[in-house]
From TrEMBL, chain A:
Residue stretches spanning the membrane: 21-41, 279-301, 322-350, 370-393, 414-439, 663-684, 712-734, 746-769
Membrane topology: Multi-pass membrane protein
Protein name listed in UniProt: ABC transporter permease
Species per Swiss-Prot/TrEMBL record: Aequorivita aurantiaca
Entry keyword set: Cell membrane, Membrane, Transmembrane, Transmembrane helix
Residue runs in coiled coils: none
InterPro entries recorded: ABC3_permease_C (IPR003838), MacB_PCD (IPR025857), Macrolide_Exporter_MacB (IPR050250)
Every MacB-like periplasmic core domain range: 20-237, 451-620
Domain of life: Bacteria
Main location class: membrane
Compartment(s) of residence: Cell membrane
Keyword Membrane part of the UniProt annotation: yes
UniProtKB/TrEMBL annotation, chain B:
SUPFAM superfamilies: P-loop containing nucleoside triphosphate hydrolases
ABC transporter domain span: 2-230
Organism: Aequorivita aurantiaca
CDD domains cross-referenced by the UniProt entry: ABC_MJ0796_LolCDE_FtsE
Keyword annotations: ATP-binding, Nucleotide-binding, Transport
Pfam family, one: ABC_tran
Superkingdom assignment: Bacteria
SMART domains reported in the protein's UniProt record: AAA
PROSITE patterns per UniProt: ABC_TRANSPORTER_1 (PS00211), ABC_TRANSPORTER_2 (PS50893)
GO molecular function, one term: ATP binding
Lineage: Bacteria, Pseudomonadati, Bacteroidota, Flavobacteriia, Flavobacteriales
Name of the protein in question: ABC transporter ATP-binding protein
InterPro entries recorded: AAA+_ATPase, ABC_transporter-like_ATP-bd, ABC_transporter-like_CS, ABC_transpr_LolD-like, MacB-like_ATP-bd, P-loop_NTPase
Length: 783, 230
């Protein structure tokens, strides 16, 4: 029986090649999209799964209370890790990480490498595997270093026999290699290239021993079977206990949530990248649904031809069950063929998709999860797409065969129309979303940042740059290519350092306000093109301004009515406000500007900013800047970026969403159009006689085209009416997440509707015009 | 074999109720060949639907081999149908996607006959119908006469007691039409009961008896040959 069913299914697919191609293409596109999204979702949800006993490993962030609301910070105080291990018995391991950049030299090999100072427990918490050496002895010597295979290859060209060898570090004693560990996998939150003992760092920075500075990343691993909630409560109690400050608390953030649930609001997880995982999973389901709808529509549209066969089979003794099995076999065969095409498409498209999502996703049919997903999705598509047609077609009564008038039932026609409307609702929502996301990104890109981001080079400060700053500045000006040079303790877009507990003249509840602060050189404001709205800039001699500060407008606003200039702000010392600059955008580039206080000084500098003269080729200027830095900071390689490029990276995620939504909107529309194309062929065929009679009576090609088009136009108009409020609600909600956002203009909806109508019009016209141009005698002869 | 008494069937739309069969009664004996004639819309097709257990009457009685089948559900009707009744249609109603062999084989699949037996029986019938050489062809590759022979082969493959034929020569030229009528006569001679709906006086003459219908009722009955029963 099964052989018979498959045989008939194959012949049916072969006989109706046109419909089969439409169905297989639509389903293949749907399955391909779903598989690509699945691979991405799998990668996202498996983040950090390489950590052994992942459920027992936690990060320890800090909540601090400002104006009655908890704000969450990653950095925690240096002594916290040890305290957690000592005070809480369930904490089995506790370790700290501090990020650092070191210039390594081995022979002629010089690399600037980003790595970590760490406690020994970090090896076990992250399950770092030693190729040479071991975790126990790795940090016995304060000047030891553990490096990864990749770093070893870069420095020595090999991973073997390097334990005991020295790495020379700029301005420090050499480090001795005590171990080599495996490289970090691609999908982990914390990647390592080298690790040095934390004490190596803390012995030179005594402030790391106190609870006053939050600067390390703290991690813990609990004992097996520990009650996570109970331990979390104990962790929350520890800081108020040790610091007598109940406005801050540490808590546990599971390693399972690091990647996908890392957005906090008022101290509680409110989401994170999981939202994108959910969004794209939903998109995959919708695209599959649209593809399945094509199958349903085309199958039921062909029911007139099928009705006779069903009648004969029933008259010959076929049961409804056998007929359902027959139609399901056909849909399963179609879905299987589509899956085959999808696999080919996957292999072709995966490199481009990887490039887009910046991942290294691979298809592995030897991986059970991948195989199960593909088989599962094929089964679901085959059954879902085939079930309704199977029940509908098998319900035809056998008596119809004697009457020879087998008009498909009204219910199928209405359902088919409903399904077309559904497909276009999704497509139109996709079109509107694509437009809104694109406009929002453009809106942010053109936002007034409060400074001029163009033509500014950003160079990380290292080696002798601070020491030789005056000479560097002088030589750069001497090039004649540079408009301005300055330094800042923070990167221009980063949130940077912050502090609270400040007070100022006339201030109320000032201690409860979080203020960001940066040390800058006198011409930073000018270099970045910031605008002083009141008062003056720092003088060229920073010593004169050691007790002066410049604040942003939002800080001035906090200080209450009247001019802020001349008023005293008390932090560690009393500072006098000498100037107010216009607010500028940093940190959350979608959010409002938070108050900033600028101090004068270059000792804390982290970045050098150089504004280039306009109109000079950048390549030429960069070469000259490199020479200047090589002269004054010879040990370090010249590294730079442009501020406007840094800005672009700030909405990488939004740009990715924009690109993905464009691609998937296109696929959704394409699949919908494949269905529409098939249905318009069916309608033209079905109304052949009517068209023949109308043409005989004098109807023009245009009239016939309009006749066939208006049927679909009506459905698309209904889809627009339904899609617009849905899209409006969804996108309003999405835009709520941005403080700086666009208003939704009605013309976006008009454009989206027009696009949908235009696409449908082009799709339908092919068959409509073909039918309209047909010789009427041919049409009438068919009767 | 068949006894219908006061058979009624209505078709209703929202506004109109059409009477298709209006108290129709007659008998068909086992082995008899009966032709049913009448103008279009007189209820012939409705009668065939009911006799073929494809539809239910709204009133009256229908005894098939002495069993009242008027109230049978779809499953019971289907079961009775596939073992006892064969169909021959004006437009042949062969399944385009199946070969001659597979079309004829189909009723055997539905009655659960084993593959080896099926092959033997289909080949036997195809030989009898002189269409064996065409067994691998698809219906659209055959002439009208050949297609109807395949349809008859399919109708008799389950060795039914009754064949219902609906205008079996309607789509054929006279030569092919005569061949088909000869075939039906042969089957009848071999003991199969046949009820045939036709517009053709010529075809009707092959039967033992002609029942003429009008507006869902029997008008006359002409006995053409002396049927002695089997």
């Amino acid at each position: 029986m099964l052989g018979n069913l498959i045989n008939i299914a194959v012949r049916n697919i072969r006989k109706n090649q046109g419909y089969s191609i439409l169905n297989i293409t639509g389903l293949a596109l749907g399955i391909t999209s779903a598989c690509l999204i699945f691979l991405w979702v799998e990668n996202e949800t498996n983040f950090d799964s390489s950590i052994p006993d992942q459920e027992r490993v936690f990060y320890v962030p800090i909540n601090q209370k400002y104006k009655g609301e908890w704000q969450t910070f990653h950095a925690s105080p240096g002594p916290l890790a040890a305290a957690l291990k000592k005070e809480i018995p369930e904490v089995n391991k506790a370790g700290r990480l501090v990020n650092a950049n070191l210039l390594f030299k081995v022979g002629d090999n010089i690399i600037n490498s980003n790595g970590h100072y760490a406690d020994t427990d970090i090896f076990e918490i992250f399950g770092l595997s030693f190729i040479e050496g071991n975790a126990k002895t790795a940090f016995e010597n304060l000047n030891s270093i553990v490096i990864t295979e990749e770093t070893a290859e870069k420095l020595f060209g090999t991973v073997e026999g390097i334990v005991g060898k020295s790495i020379f570090v700029n301005n420090s004693p050499p480090l001795q290699i005590s171990g080599v560990i495996e490289d970090s996998p691609a999908n982990v939150t914390y990647k390592f290239s080298w690790l040095c003992p934390f004490q190596h760092y803390s012995k030179e920075n005594s402030w790391t021993q106190t609870y006053d500075n939050n600067f390390v990343d703290t991690f813990v691993k609990l004992i097996p079977g520990a009650d996570r909630i109970a331990v979390d409560n104990k962790v929350r109690d520890i800081l108020p206990l040790l610091t007598q400050d109940n406005k801050q608390e540490a808590f546990l953030h599971s390693s399972k949530d690091w990647h996908l649930r890392s957005k906090f609001q008022n101290g509680v997880i409110v989401g994170g990248a999981i939202e994108f995982v959910q969004l794209f999973s939903l998109i995959a389901i919708i695209i599959l649904l649209i593809a399945c709808i094509n199958f349903m529509n085309l199958a039921t549209a062909r029911s007139e031809k099928k009705a006779n066969e069903v009648g004969v089979r029933k008259a010959l003794g076929s049961s409804k069950k056998i007929l359902i099995a027959q139609f399901l076999t056909e849909s399963m065969m179609t879905a299987s063929m589509a899956a085959g095409v999808a696999v080919l498409l996957l292999y072709l498209l995966l490199p481009y998709f990887n490039n887009l999502v910046e991942r290294d996703l691979t298809i592995g049919f030897n991986e059970p999860a991948h195989l199960i997903f593909l088989i599962g999705i094929t089964l679901v598509c085959g059954i879902f797409a085939g079930l309704y047609p199977a029940f509908y077609l098998s319900s035809f009564k056998p008596l119809d065969i004697f009457k020879r008038i087998n008009k498909p039932g009204g219910s199928a026609v209405s359902l088919r129309k409903g399904l077309i409307v559904t497909q276009f609702i999704f497509s139109i929502v996709f079109i509107i979303s694509t437009l809104i996301v694109f406009l929002q990104i453009q809106h942010i890109k053109s936002r007034d940042l409060g400074f001029n981001k163009e033509n500014v080079v950003q160079i990380p400060v290292n080696g002798n740059i601070i020491k030789n700053y005056n000479s560097i500045e002088e030589d750069m000006f001497a090039l004649g290519l540079v408009q301005n040079v300055s330094m800042n303790s923070s990167e221009i877009f980063s949130s940077g350092s912050n502090g609270s507990g400040l007070s100022w003249q006339g201030g109320i509840e000032t201690e409860d306000v979080l203020i960001r602060y940066r040390w800058i050189t006198s011409n930073f404001i000018e270099t970045l093109g910031m605008e002083i709205v009141e008062g003056r800039n720092f003088s060229n001699n920073s010593r004169n301004d050691s007790l002066n500060i410049i604040i942003t407008q939002s800080f001035a606003k906090l200080m209450g009515p009247g001019s802020a200039v001349g008023r005293i702000v008390t932090a560690d010392k009393n500072y006098t406000v000498i100037g107010v600059v216009k607010d500028y955008v940093y940190g959350d580039i979608y959010g409002p500007s938070q108050p900033v206080m600028f101090l004068s000084g270059l000792d804390e500098a982290s970045f050098l900013y150089v504004r280039l003269k306009p109109g000079i080729p950048q390549g030429m200027v960069l070469g000259s800047l490199q020479k200047v830095l090589k002269r004054h900071n010879p040990a370090f390689p010249f590294e730079y970026t442009f501020v406007d490029r840094v800005f672009q990276t700030k909405f990488k995620r939004e740009i990715l969403i924009s690109k993905l939504s464009q691609i998937f909107a296109l696929i959704a529309i394409l699949i919908s159009c494949l269905g529409l194309f098939g249905l318009s062929a069916f309608t033209a065929e079905q109304r052949k006689k009517e068209i023949g009679i109308r043409k005989t009576l004098g109807s023009s090609v245009l009239n016939i085209w309009r006749l066939l088009f208006q049927e679909f136009l009506f459905l698309i108009l209904i889809a627009i009416i339904i899609a617009v409020p849905i899209a409006y609600l969804l996108l309003s909600q999405w835009l709520q997440g941005f403080a700086y956002r666009i208003d939704m203009n009605f013309w976006v909806f008009i454009i989206a509707g027009a696009i949908a109508i235009l696409i449908a019009l082009l799709t339908i016209s092919f068959h409509a015009v073909k039918a309209a141009k047909n010789n009427p005698s041919n049409n009438l002869r068919t009767e | 074999m068949i006894k219908i008494t006061d058979l009624e069937k209505y078709y209703s739309t929202e506004e109109v109720r059409t009477i298709a069969l209006n108290g129709l009664s007659f008998k068909v004996k086992e082995g008899e060949f009966v032709a049913v004639m009448g103008p279009s819309g007189c209820g012939k097709s409705t009668l065939l639907n009911i006799l073929g257990l494809l539809d239910e009457p709204d009133g009256g009685s229908f005894l098939f081999n002495g069993i009242e089948v008027a109230g049978f559900n779809e499953r019971k009707r289907s079961n009775l149908r596939k073992h006892n009744i064969g169909f021959v249609f004006q437009s042949f109603n062969l399944i385009d996607e199946l070969t001659v062999f597979e079309n004829v084989e189909l009723p055997l699949i539905y009655t659960g006959v084993k593959s080896a037996d099926r092959k033997e029986r289909v080949n036997e019938v195809l030989e009898r119908m002189q269409i064996m050489h065409r067994r691998k062809h698809f219906p659209q590759q055959l002439s009208g006469g050949q297609q109807q022979r395949v349809a008859i082969a399919r109708a008799v493959i389950n060795r039914p007691k009754l064949i219902l034929a609906d205008e079996p020569t309607g789509n054929l030229d006279s030569s092919n039409g005569n061949e088909v009528m000869e075939l039906l006569t042969e089957l009848n001679d071999a003991g199969t009961t046949i009820v045939m709906v036709t517009h053709s006086e010529h075809d009707a003459k092959y039967s033992h008896r002609i029942i003429r219908m009008l507006d869902g009722q029997k008008v006359t009955e002409n006995v053409l040959a002396d049927f002695k029963g089997i």
